[in-house]
Amino acid sequence: KDYVSQIPPEKYPYLNGLTHQVMEGRYDGLHDFEFGLELILEGLDKVRDII
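User: That's the sequence. What structure does it adopt?
Assistant: Structure tokens below.
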């Protein structure tokens, strides 16, 4: 928790808020990771089909 003080909410409001959500167990990022991974894999499939 010491690193949270290095993320000032005045300068990094979204990162600070996300940090607190992760620490409190309200966000794990899995949904966003799966979405991004699926997006990348679909893009690679399209490129592979073109080549």
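The radius of gyration is 17 Å.
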